[in-house]
Amino acid sequence: MSMKLRDIAALLNAEIAGNETVEIRRVAKIEEAREGDISFIANPKYTRFLATTHASAVIVGKKMNMTEAHPPALLRVDDPYASFLKVLATFNPPRDPLPPGIHPTAVVAPSARLGPDVRIGACAVIGENCTIGDKTMIGHGTVIGEGVRIGSASLLYAHVTVPGW
User: Fold this and answer.
1) What is the CATH number of domain 3-91?
2) How far is Cα 154 from Cα 118, in angstroms, rounded to an integer?
3) Cβ atoms within 10 A of the Cβ of 60, count?
4) Which of 45, 51, 131, 158 has a C-alpha 20 to 30 A away from that of 96?
5) What is the sign of the dihedral through the CA atoms of 57, 58, 63 and 69?
6) What sign has the CA pseudo-torsion 94, 98, 99, 101?
7) How much is the average pLDDT of 97-105?
8) How many Å from the N-terminal Cα to the C-terminal Cα in the chain?
9) Residue-wise DSSP of 59-91
10) Mean pLDDT over residues 145-164, rounded?
């Protein structure tokens, strides 16, 4: 994945100082960054790394005094740490813990009631008279006992056992 710096600036509502067309491909710690990387400085004591970083862009606070040499581009934001986390999540989105649907090895009792978009992992067992809420994910090898009710948008990790009646 890669993004133009101007697109990242729009995502963060940031002010750009430098080349807005630079291509960003990764996120990195400021002292380990390379060309194509974006990093951040939230604490002024780390501004010393601006003189030596190879990052293509650095996220900094709007009030940060920039007296040292800096990389080709800066993104000025209100909260550099929160902004960096947002960029990190954009470049490294969390993986979906379970694929959609019910795994063919799962055992679901005929009397169990499943809400829409429920995901059930391999070798999971859903007991009689269970109610599983909408958009719930039940991990691999999980056992849900008889009569258990699980709310909507819940996540039960692998190998969890919820005893029933």
Assistant:
1) 3.40.1390.10
2) 10
3) 27
4) 131
5) negative
6) negative
7) 93
8) 49
9) EEETT----S---SEEEEES-HHHHHHHHHHHH
10) 95
CA 99 → CA 106, 141, 163, distances in Å? 13, 15, 25
Contact predicate 140/124, CB 8 Å: yes
Cβ neighbours of 34 (radius 10 Å): 12
| 40/125 Cα distance (integer angstroms) | 46
Query: Domain 107-162 belongs to what architecture?
Result: 3 Solenoid (2.160)
Domain boundaries, the chain: 3-91, 107-162
Contact 103, 124 (CB under 8 A): yes
Tell me, what's the pLDDT at 1?
Answer: 87
Digit-coded pLDDT (tens) for 135-146: 999 999 999 999
The pairing of beta strand 107-108 with beta strand 23-24:
unpaired
- Using alpha carbons, list the distances in angstroms from residue 131 to 78, 127, 136, 137, 146: 45, 9, 11, 13, 10
Angle CA 52–81–1, to nearest 5: 75
Q: Taking the CA atoms of 98, 99, 103 and 109 in sequence, report the sign of the dihedral they define.
A: positive
Which structure tokens are listed for 56? 């293509």
CA 116 to chain centre: 24
